[in-house]
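Bench notes, afternoon.
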Amino acid sequence: MVQNTLKARLVQKHDIEAHWLLAKNFVPMRGEFIVYDTEIDSDGSILKLPEGRTEPYTYARYKIGDGVTSINDLPFAGDRINDEVGAIFTNGSIGLKYAIYDEHAEFIGLGECTDTIVEIASIVQGRYVTAINDNALESRNKVTEVVIPKRISSIGNYAFYSCDSLTSVVIPDSVTSIGNYAFYSCRSLTSVVIPDSVTSIGDYAFSWCDSPTNLVIPNGVTSIGDNAFAYCSSLTSVTIGNGVTSISKSAFEGCTSLTNLVIPNGVTSIGDDAFHYCYNLTSVVIPDSVTSIGGEAFSECDSLTDIYYTGTEEDWNAIIIGSNNESLTNTTIHYNWEG
């Protein structure tokens, strides 16, 4: 009988199951198969490599049935389901689909997974999962929570489009781009936290997410797409980072709970319909860096009473202001405002 050596590290334990991260590269040595020990944290980061190794081994993730009292020999060889001990091979949540490339992997869909809480794997077949592909969970209305691992750098177009039941998703600080329509109409999403690593937010990325009340756009963001936060009707507070140089078309259109707004210094243009129909907006701080305000940018902002402008009256009169902005031009303008 072949003697086998199994080394594994228990990462987390729930009430009736344990998740194990296991190295699964089997190297023949004098007739024995040895599983080398690679310690991997729950977020996928490598804690410890076998002596003499510089790259992590591929690992498998198993759900251990609650009836199992002991694990002997090497029941998980070759990623096979082992009915004898009730072990089920998983990659994050069971049944998820990934695309495997030479140097990385990408999450592409729900596959046969029926979980309401979806956990995307950190590593698949020895490759870090670095992207959530376009349409990965589009219109998957039963999904309530998504766990995104570190090392994901991009969230694709329509990735979570119209996930009506999605209430919780934490975007890790490895993500740099959020695609067009990525979270469009996720109407049960209770909060939106954008990490400092993000530099671009696509068109309609969070449009019609009408449950979040607060939004902070970090300083690293330089590009906000058209309609990015349109009709986020519960937003009462928006902080725009100082990396933003333009506010795009309809970016905050229909944010009807927004009452006050500070546009950061450095913004040079405010697009058409940018704050159209923000009818509870009462005051706006506009910096003297702004040179143009698009048509209907503040149309139907009927509660707007005060504009605090950091430049002179002469500077204000030099701004190119598009049509149908009477809510802006007929209000009280406070020049040379210093805050």
